[in-house]
Amino acid sequence: MKRRHRARLAAGILAAGVFLTGCGGNSNIERASDRGSGGASASGGGSGGGNRAPDARPRQDDGPEGEQRSRPPAPDHLSTFALDVDTASYGYARRTLADGRLPDPTTVRPEEFVNSFRPDYRRPEGDGFGVTVDGARSADAGWSLVRVGLATRAAERQGPRPPAALTFVVDISGSMAEPGRLDLVKESFGILTDELRDDDSVALVTFSDEAETRLPMTRVGENRGRVHDIVDELATTSSTNVEAGVRTGYDVAVEGHRKGATNRVVLLSDALANTGDTEARSILNRIDRERRQYGITLFGVGVGSDYGDAFMEQLADKGDGHTTYVSTTEQARKVFVEQLPAHVELRARDAKAQVAFDPKTVERFRLIGYENREVADEDFRDDRVDGGEVGAGHTVTALYAVKTRPGRTGHLATATVRWLDPRTRAPHERSGTVGTAALTSSVWGPGHDSLQLTAIAAYFADRLRGGDLPGAPRLSELARYSTAIAERSGSKVVGELTEAIRQADRLLGPDGNGSRDADGGEASGDPYGG
């Protein structure tokens, strides 16, 4: 996904291995999150009247109200960020915990934990977003949780959509021999081949120490068997030269570029680069150039118990794409059968959100996560500044911890999302508001399961990276709340979240500190030793 950050990640962290941010510009703003009831929601796509952010210039495409967002407590009380739907951080954290280790705090991105769960937000009838804003009181006096939820219209499984031109770049280096790596990639690719439509096209590039084109851009149609045969023959070889794979992949994608189609490179790798150009700049520049010239985006799928998280995220960010992580066949099926087709059909380009908190009722606020997605407040309506690409059926959630002014009531915040039409690139906006009346009940009270789940995911991520959010329960309490939601809903994914929280609680121990091993991970001992 494309975006201009105020603070960019250092390129050098690339040399390690498909799915929002923001903060104003002032130093006295924090970050936090949550969702509750009593908020406003709105749905819709292109046009129509509606609420505007306080500084909005009149636009004929402004939409109805329904959402909100914020930055750290700056004098302007604004929070601005580019939308994103990455989930790799949560998937990799779950895998690491299941292996008896605590994740490296630098790989924990709270927004990707939160966005791994999809609340039932109102969706628009056309392109663009439905906007929901709600909140509730936290356990810390004076602090509340405010949630901003955005949702796009789901794709019709057999409905019309642009054809896809997908170039798969598959890592077959020695590190991919571990169970749950190349074998899972092959199975995933096979699943997707059967799901693609006849007018879609695929290409396949493999890489180890060198890159090789196994299949040029080919219409799926009568070639499914040929694709399956090529995938079945894949086997691991030697070292990892990601640069060669990415460069060759983009060569093939450019050569097979289809006008009017969704052109995308899908990188499947553990992203553990050890040969070739392992510096970020040259690879990122190539990805950025082809995105701008040909509209080719990148979807990164991570695998393996050791995974180059920072590497993959930078590649996807520069390629205006997304990242996810898979470790089981079930997860692979979800990504390649449910999520990748959704990425093919775009609902919004260059999507950004801005939340304006009311200084009359809000003393300060904190946004949880999204540090890598910041956009300058003044760039919110500058359509030359990159935002996020969002496909069909996605939800994006931003969570804030908000400290309200004692005794003040009324308007709390206005959230506005801005995006470009995926076909015409015409700008549209939609806004939503929330007031202090939404914060009368406790987030942990009855009837707040959706908000509670958002809060649990955010508090869990913040704890893993050593944060101190106001009103954060102990991990054991989070596990108890999560268990109750799983039992009431019968949700398997919530049950998986519960187990991850319990494992983290065991590894951290009574003092809350897991000892680090030499590799920067956590030495667990007996993961069930308490």
Automatic annotation (TrEMBL):
The cross-references to SMART domains, in alphabetical order and at most eight, read:
VWA
Per the record, the domain of life is: Bacteria
Q: SUPFAM superfamilies attached here?
A: vWA-like
InterPro entries attached to this UniProt entry: CLCR, Uncharacterised_YfbK_N, VWF_A, vWFA_dom_sf, YfbK_C
User: Which residue stretches does the UniProt record annotate as biased composition, category Basic and acidic residues?
Assistant: 54-70
List compositional bias (Gly residues) regions by residue number: 36-51
One Pfam family, please name it: YfbK_C
Q: Kindly provide the name given to this protein in its UniProt entry.
A: von Willebrand factor type A domain-containing protein
The record lists the organism as Streptomyces lateritius
